[in-house]
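A reminder from the course coordinator: this example appears on the midterm review sheet, so study it carefully.

Given structure:
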């Protein structure tokens, strides 16, 4: 599981040490050398678990999909980002954190609690 790219769809085989990594930053963290650049890359699809090679010299739109299961593996990377917010569960399941801002009715102002006997005659 890659902590740099959250939606990684393939693993990359590093041509320098022949080990599998989710991204080049994962390789840099573990290895004592830089990743070697090559024109032919070996990928392993995380959906169907099959390996395939891609020639980076002639890479086009059809090469953005796994040849075995048609999984689209060239996506915009989702990286972890920090934000300030309130931790809590889904408010649709547990709404104790949501303040009820509706105006409460005074029970004494109901039309059923008033005495209209003097108007009846």
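Designed residues:
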């Amino acid at each position: 599981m890659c902590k740099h790219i959250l939606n990684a769809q393939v693993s990359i085989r590093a041509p320098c040490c022949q080990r599998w990594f989710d991204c080049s930053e994962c390789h840099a963290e573990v290895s004592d050398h830089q990743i070697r650049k090559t024109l032919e890359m070996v990928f392993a699809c995380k959906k169907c678990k099959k390996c395939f090679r891609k020639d980076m010299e002639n890479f086009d739109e059809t090469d953005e999909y796994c040849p075995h299961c048609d999984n689209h593996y060239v996506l915009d990377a989702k990286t972890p980002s920090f934000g300030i917010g309130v931790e809590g569960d889904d408010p649709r399941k547990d709404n104790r954190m949501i303040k009820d801002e509706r105006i409460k009715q005074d029970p004494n102002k109901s039309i059923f609690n008033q005495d209209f006997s003097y108007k009846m005659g």
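The two ends are 82 Å apart (CA to CA). The longest strand covers residues 40-45.
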